[in-house]
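Supplementary notes for students who missed Thursday's class. We covered one full example, reproduced here. Read the sequence, then the structure, then the short commentary at the end.
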Amino acid sequence: MSAERVSQGARRHVATAALFLVAWQAAVLVDAPHRSGVVLGLYGFVLHTVAGKGYALVPSYFARTLSHPWAPAASLPLLSLGTVGLAVAPFDDIPSVVGIAGAVCWALGVLVFVGTVGWTVRDNLTGRETGTGEVNTDRRWVDRTANAFVPVVFAYLVAGAYETVAVSAALPTLTGRGMAGASHLLAAGVGALLVFAVGFRLLPRFLVSSPPVVLVIAVLTAGAVGPVLVAGNLWGGTWFRVGAVAESIAVGGFAIAYISLFFRSERRRVGLYGPLVGVVMGVVGVALGAHFAFTGGSPGWSIAHYRLNLLGFLGLTIVGVTYQFYPPAVGTFSGANDRTALASMGCLAAGLGVEAYGSLAGFDVGTVVGRFLALIGASLYAYLLLRLFQERYGR
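Structure (token representation):
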């Protein structure tokens, strides 16, 4: 019963994340405040998914069982209400207390998540016990290496939560870079680093292949160091550039690893195409970031960098992996098939590509068309996921 309770809580986090993905694309399309879009995409879509699958996967990867099965149900309303509060705060005539309340609420949800998972693995913090079965003994070095970086992800999550509260409530901050500092701590330090850590355990198994240990170590090390350097030195300076290079190495190395695994594998399940396109988008996104760090750039470059990394790298990777866990083709409702799943990822990728071109070239029509396509893709994803959950689980 406790395992089903955790699974149900994980699904509800993932379902809520899908709704935030749709809200994000809609907000961007109608030109809502930039900060609202970042909150809906990062705090809403990416980090709700991180919490949901984190509850389900991390304990098992550390050979443990979640200590408090009620935690997912407790953190979901805190994270969701907090995200809504943070998202509406940038609008005109919204009292500042709304943003403060949203930040505090969201941070409390983070504390429930980190506290519960941390307590669960407290006697195995390095992740030496991996839960790896005997048939996968050759994967244990990679699994242990990946596990060792999960506590770093949680440290970034706590730091990002504090930074969000500190900026909202005018308290002393960690980075001195406002909400941009908090966003980089969370996007790169939590979202990207967790994709690397969990991805090196999960994706090779999906593809029935193995990445080189040296590449795993290089990606995880660069991915752990880069976020703090970037977040603490945004917009210029030597350390900002060092951080940008580290992030480029991490994303580029992960892209090389995944692409090589994909093309060596005979597996061609629909969900595996999400990370394939996602890592390509991520390489372009960090390249734009590195260009900005070394030579500067226009606001359009900054927007393209943010969208390619958040919706492209993290978003498409999350959507693809979610389809692996919850294949739409097992449903019997209208559109429950791989073609619709592929169409959702195709619309997201094509829309993002057109939008990025429009942002970089100053072609406003292209930007709008791209964002509309991305909204269609997000809506298809949410439809498939929510209908599947309703049909198979009744909730």
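Commentary. The mean pLDDT is 94. Residues 25 and 375 are 5 Å apart (CA to CA). If anything here is unclear, bring it to office hours.
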